[in-house]
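Following up on my earlier message about adenosine-5'-diphosphate. Here are the inputs again, as you asked, copied directly from the submission form:
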Amino acid sequence: MVKYALQLNNISKMYHDGEDENTVLDNVSLKVRPGEFVAIVGPSGSGKSTMLSIAGALLSSTKGEVIVGETPLDSNKKNWNLVRREKIGFIFQSHQLIPYLNVGDQLNLIGRISKKKDREESKKYADELLADLGLADSKTKYPNKLSGGEKQRVAIARAFMNKPDVILADEPTASLDAPRGRQVVEMIRKVVKKQNRAAIMVTHDERILDLVDVIYRIENGKLYVNVM
Ligand code: ADP
Ligand code: MG
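Thanks, got it. Here's what our run produced:
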């Protein structure tokens, strides 16, 4: 097994605004091991989403290197689609479920897109994830019949469907009340530990930080290990 599921090495991100240069990320490095659940906190506008987007091959950095498993992201983006599809699962602030698919089909759609395994195996895996996330009875329900917490748990199940080595979650509890938010993060933790995946969660919510293994803080473009 690889030592690190994800490495950000000396990542900087600048935006140009006329003559000015805005440094959002300033030489940030982060390594996450398989089975490790990491949180990133920091004020609004501090670069958390930017960092997650760079880690997930959605946005290019100005400087530095991203390595997913053993695969460095090409500077010309040649392997980005493949890495995203095969190695990364995203969980966004709002669940982004497809309204006209029931819960089971939200997951089976991913099984079909990834073509990694045959359909039966993929369906079995979907059932296992739904059971782990407390959604076994919701398989035939449509999103409009689910609570906010249930929808977000479906989004988690969907993110794990292609068995990604790295899970990236951007404020996954932002639309939930405290107990549901906590439950959602407990679920992410459960799958990360059970399947030895790596996860990075950006959050504002200090009350759930006891559920992660390491807390980092972004401030003025720098990343610090947080001492609570
Ligand atoms: P966070 O997720 O921590 O709230 P973001 O990563 O979304 O912060 O944004 C960090 C900073 O980068 C903000 O100051 C934002 O204005 C700036 N920024 C983000 N995207 C762009 C862009 N496309 N062009 C210029 N500036 C941007
Ligand atoms: Mg953000």
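One observation from looking it over: The radius of gyration is 17 Å. Hope that helps, and feel free to reply on this thread.
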